[in-house]
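Hi F.,

I've been meaning to write this up properly since the lab meeting, where we talked about keeping a consistent format for the predictions we share between groups. The idea is simple: the sequence comes first, exactly as it goes in, then the structure tokens exactly as they come out, then a line or two of notes. No screenshots and no reformatting. I'm using this chain as the first example so we have something concrete to point to.
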Amino acid sequence: MGIAALAACGHSSPHLRLDTGSAPWPNPDHVDERISEAGLSSASTEALTIHYHAHLDIFVDGKSEPVAPSIGREDRSLFSPLHTHATSGMIHIEAPTAEQITLGMLFTEWGVRLTRECVGGYCRPDTTIETYVDGQQTQEPPSTIVLTKGEEIAIVIGSPPASTPSSWDCRANIDPALESPFQCADFGP
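Output, unedited:
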């Protein structure tokens, strides 16, 4: 697994490391510090004043890779307003106040490198990296993509999948023991 210090990327905690290895990437370490590094606060419970969901797909050479199930949270005792509960790729935004939440914040919490040139250990020009929002390719740096309700984000590394998703069938792709089907309303019928 490749590792780079966050300090090398302009962050303030030199002991926190960014994963610069290949997918799949594991759950992060130092969760509370990574939440702070992302510019977010944490609490012992989920805040539901602002509550919506987006979805992230990661494809490496056409194969879907899981999103870590405990980004931005530790068990049921520590929660960021930005977190995951399962490997489905559903991103939970549950905040006490309205905030602009970005894909870069999620990757900071995850501890995985995300720049215009690299995702984890995959870097241009050796590897093609494309980012899609709701099925449309974007030239926006992936770290600056603002997460919105029902949004489908796909990061395609290397060879693309047979088709790049423009939406996500939430009900068909979650484990109801880990994520509530009620949360699927954000993704349409």
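Notes:
The CA atoms of residues 121 and 144 lie 19 Å apart.
Residues 3-187 form one domain.

If this format works for you, I'll send the rest the same way.

G.
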